Amino acid sequence: MENAKSVKLVLEDGTEIQGKSFGAFTSAAGEVVFSTAMTGYPENLTDPSFAGQILVLTYPMVGNYGVPGEDLYESISKIFESDKIHVAGLVVNYYSEEHSHWHAAKSLGDWLSEYNIPGIFDVDTRLLTKKLREKGAMLGKIVAEDDVPLHDPNQDNLVAQVSPTEVKHYGSGSNKIVLVDCGTKTNIIRCFLERDVELIRVPWDYDFTQLDYDGLFLSNGPGDPKMCEATIGHLQTALQQDKPIFGICLGSQLMGLAAGGNTFKLKYGHRSHNQPVLLTGTKRSYITSQNHGFAVDTDTLPAEWEMLFENLNDGTCEGIKHKTKPFFSTQFHPEAAGGPQDTEFMFDDFLKAVEEYKEGK
Ligand SMILES: NC(=O)CC[C@H](N)C(=O)O
């Protein structure tokens, strides 16, 4: 892009990296995290779990397939993971303003501008990632004209900012599932609606314990799971019963906390489409899509709980399960979007548990 204005990326350790502006020419602060996924920027940027984060992409060329046009299905997006861009900023190496794809409606830069989100390109994102791997995720900011203070998004209740304020109903089916929306990705809703499910989507702090349902689902979401006290409280009531519960990512962390375990912040998190996980007690591994900065500390889980999946790169917890009740979770994203769909069977496993519960098994 000729004529691109200069902007810089500043990290909390004092590092300053000069680059060029695309998207909105504005300043923004957040937590600087990296993803090694090779594709999927329309999905990543709209994933509410990225709220408050400046996303660094290691894949060297970004923007070449543009951004698809909006398309709705059951009043939710068919394409995007929510109805807006959630990242605070985007850092790439080569930005391809010229895009080409049958479904592209606009360029990545124009899309970022629409939501007033700054992008910076001409940054050696692999070198930057090595730094983030050594020092851990850092606070940082993209600075255009006006400077902004550094800001730690993990001190905010980000879930309250991205969760809906109203209850919504979707689909029809024989299994009534309550989805606690802490910032759900729409592909989770799509995965349920492709199955025999009537979905009741409720806000993060809604008292779902009063509802009539067959199974409870806890969504992904941004920030520190310990901010979700209201959800954890309601969940503790649900854990006293026997109705199946399934959680993904933040949902897995909330299940761990409600069970009495602890969560901790990972050094730099897992964000990519090729994270290997091992199903506990087997030699079976799966390649999974991930986006998280916190994890359940398996050692703190009460005796009735155990680790369901383990990350094969660093041994951290990738899901938990109750030893006797149908409560289980994945730290990774079985709904993918983007990334491999190899673990989508987790939705079938959950619905099987729901049907067995209804049959009184
Ligand atoms: N994708 C998610 O749900 C992320 C959960 C949590 N905010 C974390 O970073 O660990």
Report on this structure.
With 361 residues, the protein is of the alpha/beta class. It folds into two domains: 6-154, Glucose Oxidase, domain 1, CATH 3.50.30; 158-360, Class I glutamine amidotransferase (GATase) domain (Rossmann fold, 3-Layer(aba) Sandwich). Helix content is 20%, strand content 34%. The strands form seven sheets. A seven-stranded mixed β-barrel has the order 1-2-12-9-4-3-13. Strand 15, helix 5 and strand 16 form a beta-alpha-beta unit. Helix 6 (229-238) crosses helix 7 (250-259). It binds glutamine. Glutamine (GLN) binds at residues 49, 220-223, 249-250, 291-294. This is Carbamoyl phosphate synthase small chain. One of its GO terms (molecular function) is carbamoyl-phosphate synthase (glutamine-hydrolyzing) activity.
Mind sketching the topology for me?
Elements lengths: L5 E6 L4 E8 L4 E8 L5 H6 L6 E5 L3 E2 L4 E2 L3 E2 L2 E2 L11 E3 L2 E2 L8 E3 L1 H7 L3 E4 L3 H11 L2 E6 L14 H5 L5 E3 L4 E7 L4 H8 L3 E7 L11 E4 L10 H10 L6 E4 L1 H10 L2 E18 L5 E13 L7 E3 L1 E3 L8 E3 L4 E4 L14 H14 L3
Parallel strand pairs: 3-4, 4-9, 5-10, 9-12, 15-16, 15-17, 17-18, 18-24
Antiparallel strand pairs: 1-2, 1-13, 2-12, 3-13, 6-11, 7-8, 14-16, 19-20, 19-22, 21-23
Glutamine (GLN) binds next to strand 20.
Key traits:
globular, alpha/beta, 8 helices, Glucose Oxidase, domain 1, six-stranded mixed sheet, Rossmann fold, 2 domains, binds glutamine
- The figure for the number of domains is 2
Helix content: 10-25%
| Secondary structure: number of strands | 24
Bound molecules: glutamine
Summing up helix and strand content along with how strands pair, one would put the structural category as alpha/beta
- What count of helical segments does DSSP give? 8
- Report the C-alpha radius of gyration, rounded: 20 Å
Average pLDDT score: 97
Unreliable stretches covering 5 or more consecutive residues: none
What's the CATH class label of the largest domain?
A: Alpha Beta
Shape: globular
Q: What would CATH call the architecture of the largest domain?
A: 3-Layer(aba) Sandwich
Distance between the termini: 62 Å
The CATH topology of the largest domain corresponds to Rossmann fold
What oligomeric arrangement do these chains adopt?
single chain
Say which CATH homologous superfamily of the largest domain is assigned: Class I glutamine amidotransferase (GATase) domain
**Beta fraction:** 25-35%
Q: Largest beta sheet: what is the strand line-up?
A: 1-2-12-9-4-3-13
- Major beta sheet, specifics? 7 strands, mixed, barrel
GO molecular function: carbamoyl-phosphate synthase (glutamine-hydrolyzing) activity
Family: Belongs to the CarA family.
Organism: Hymenobacter profundi
Subunit structure: Composed of two chains; the small (or glutamine) chain promotes the hydrolysis of glutamine to ammonia, which is used by the large (or ammonia) chain to synthesize carbamoyl phosphate. Tetramer of heterodimers (alpha,beta)4.
